[in-house]
Design brief:
iron-sulfur, single chain, 26 helices, about 700 residues, alpha/beta, MoPterin_dinucl-bd_dom
Length: about 700
């Protein structure tokens, strides 16, 4: 029945599905069975606290966008042209075609020739991760999901041993908040809410460590403008001052860490003067920050993702995670650090992912090396077959993956069949043979965990999808039936799967969690602050990193939290370091299609120090060519004094089509895998600049 407009707006609970640690609890205005109005943060949620980012607040313009895909499409024209190259096809015929092409490829090359490829277009566990169930049931090639968190997680695990930390709500009880390598104004707005509480209620200071003056850094009491890839040197110098000036907590170090004479000697040699030469941060700034940190036991480091996205990113994260141990900050409310809280939910996802059907002998391909994989790099394919069948959900590799030119070359292959399940005709979808229309988060059931807070949330379908859109789960079940894939999960509804997963994981049932609004999985103060010990066998925080236990590519990594110059070094030919940082109104390539976000962002620009602009003989708005061995692109210059002269920033991710020559910023980024177990290195790129 239609909603009764005479009774006024009806609001319903939901959860933001997008790739952000905040996982905001939402309230959505329902106008009709198929239409929404406003979206706002749920004020009752202890972390969201009524605040959401502007792009999600405008979600109606995305949900009801006239360019949404609403029917299955089969390509009849050339790849890459877009919607005009496709014609409608019925759902049964579309799924039959996909199954027939995958079975044909499997018959020729074996099952590993098919690669189900996905990521975080939705963070809902059923709709995002069910693709693994099809993968395992069919013995298709595996995916090592390295594009976002692997490097940061490796560095965090080296010290603490577990993906957990201090509840972010404690930020409000801190006397000093350090945002290291993140820009929550753009990417995690709720962090700023809790920082504001600390500043207003306790007079807390905010320090930001970032290569450029972000929206977050602009609000800080102190901004340490570090060169990209050198954060470990800054962290080591701060440790040097803490020990030199008797600000370290020796009792805590002895009780809770493996700190020893070797670590003492290491820090003794890492002076602020040594760090200044590497980082570009002046000695006096390092001294001032270290003294402030050392005098403030209730200091909270919010560890970001940005500074991990370099070849030495894991080492940098480990180095930063050592600072609360030196200070003993873990002992205090509002003290310690957080990178992510994924481990606290203790989910048994066997049913969702089909883990009981997984064959460990099946090859696993690196998600971040999509371009090399699709162009047949033997380093990636090994002894296995080429990928001749792709099934893509929740991601847009033609734009978001490194080495864009290789990605596009791979997708253009004549021997490749590509089926994309999408909401819009993305540049990946335009390269596909078959495009299936996908629901959005308000149009299906799912559940969510958060990296940035501690609550488990369940959502129900609130509105009807447009046209013939189907959820990821429905499409996977339909394909499984045609492919002969057997697993109990393919016979269940999404809601049944949520409920079964919760019960297997020791949580309340799906309906109980939904009725309550959320289920808080926060652990005790003692556990969140590691006062019962860290998650290593010896129960200690590790200054001595055992990289071999984390990944195979560890040979050259420093055991102690040192600066490791493994990042892409500037040269005479490539004298600039490029950071492709997140734009405020886009989330990867999501929201690049919405008018509100497009209006705010304008066009792609490169932020460049005014002295560099002048030295190159340029003016504001003039076009320059950025390039390296992977290619070059044209982009407009925006003079900006909030960056070091040899550092360039392009806030992204713009579609390829937004660039003059049709290829975006990831043309320049490398698909090299970070140590010790992979990870994309988006912020680790040396380039040259030439006037256009």
């Amino acid at each position: 029945m239609p909603l009764d407009a005479t009774k006024g707006p009806r609001w319903a609970r939901s959860t933001c599905p997008h790739d952000c640690p905040s996982t905001c609890a939402l309230e959505v205005e329902l106008l009709a069975e198929d239409r929404i109005g406003k979206v706002r943060g749920n004020a009752a949620h202890p972390y969201t606290d009524g605040v959401v980012c502007a792009k999600v607040a405008r979600y109606a313009e995305r949900l009801h966008h006239p360019a949404r895909l609403t029917q299955p499409l089969v390509r009849r024209g050339e790849k890459g042209v877009g919607i005009s190259a496709f014609e409608p096809i019925g759902w049964d015929a579309a799924l039959d075609l996909a199954a027939e092409r995958f079975l044909r490829a499997e018959e020729r090359y074996g099952s590993e020739t098919i690669w189900p490829y996905f990521y975080a277009g939705t963070m809902g566990h059923v709709q995002r991760d069910g693709i693994h169930r099809l993968r395992h049931a069919k013995r298709y090639s595996g995916q090592q999901s390295t594009i976002c968190t692997t490097l940061a997680e490796s560095g965090w695990l080296a010290g603490t041993g577990v993906k957990a930390g201090v509840d972010a709500r404690e930020i409000a009880e801190s006397d000093l908040v350090v945002v290291w390598g993140g820009n929550p104004v753009n990417t995690q707005v709720n962090v700023m809410t809790h920082i504001a509480k600390a500043r207003k209620g306790r007079g807390a200071k905010l320090v930001v460590v970032d290569p450029y003056r972000t929206g977050t850094a602009a609000q800080a009491d102190m901004h340490l403008m570090v060169r990209p890839g050198t954060d470990a040197a800054l962290a080591a110098a701060v440790g040097h001052v803490l020990l030199r000036d008797c600000l370290a907590d020796r009792s805590y170090l002895a009780r809770f860490t493996d700190f020893d004479a070797a670590a003492e000697a290491f820090y003794a040699e890492r002076s602020p003067a040594w760090a200044e030469a590497i980082t570009g941060v002046p000695v006096q700034q390092i001294e001032t920050f270290a003294a402030l940190y050392g005098a403030t036991p209730r200091s909270y480091i919010r560890v970001g993702y940005g500074f991990a996205r370099t070849r030495n990113g894991a080492v940098s994260v480990h180095a930063v995670s050592c600072l609360p141990g030196l200070l003993g900050a873990w002992q205090h409310r509002g003290g310690g650090a957080l990178w992510g809280n994924g481990a606290i939910y203790q989910l048994d996802k066997s049913l969702i992912e089909g883990l009981d059907a997984r064959d460990p002998s099946v090859r696993v391909l690196d998600q971040s090396r999509f371009g090399p994989v699709m162009t047949g790099d033997p380093q990636d394919l090994g002894a296995g077959p080429p990928v001749t069948g792709l099934f893509i959900q929740n991601t847009n590799p033609a734009v978001v993956c490194p080495e864009t030119r290789k990605c596009l070359e791979g997708l253009a292959r004549d021997d490749l069949f590509v089926c994309v399940h999408e909401q819009f005709m993305t540049e990946t979808a335009a390269m596909a043979d078959l495009v299936l229309p996908a629901t959005m988060f308000l149009e299906h059931n799912d559940f969510y965990t958060a990296s940035g807070h501690t609550t488990l949330q369940v959502t129900r379908k609130l509105v009807e999808p447009p046209g013939a859109c189907r959820s990821n789960h429905e499409v996977l079940c339909g394909l499984a039936k045609r492919l002969g894939a057997q697993h109990p999960g393919f016979e269940m509804t999404a809601w049944e799967m949520i409920d079964a997963t919760f019960r297997a994981s020791g949580h309340p049932g799906a309906q109980e969690v939904y009725d309550a609004g959320w289920h808080d999985c926060a652990e005790s103060f003692e556990r969140q602050h590691f006062l019962e010990g860290f998650a290593h066998p010896d129960k200690r925080f590790h200054f001595h990193a055992d990289w071999a236990a984390i990944g195979a590519a560890h040979a050259e990594m420093p055991r102690l939290p040192d600066y490791w110059p493994a990042h892409d070094q500037v040269t005479e030919d490539k004298p600039f370091r490029l950071v492709a940082a997140p734009a405020r109104s886009y989330l990867n390539t999501t929201f690049t299609e919405t008018p509100g976000s497009q209006k705010r962002e304008g066009r792609p620009t490169v932020l460049m120090h005014p002295a560099t602009v002048e030295r190159l003989g340029l003016g504001a708005g003039e076009r320059v060519r950025l390039g390296n061995e992977r290619g070059s692109l044209l982009i407009a210059v925006e003079p900006f004094d909030g960056v070091q002269p040899e550092v360039l920033v392009v806030e992204s991710i713009w579609p390829n089509a937004a660039f003059e020559e049709g290829v975006g910023i990831n043309l320049l980024t490398s698909a090299d895998a970070g140590a010790p177990r992979g990870g994309a290195v988006f912020h680790d790129t040396a380039v040259w600049v030439r006037p256009a």
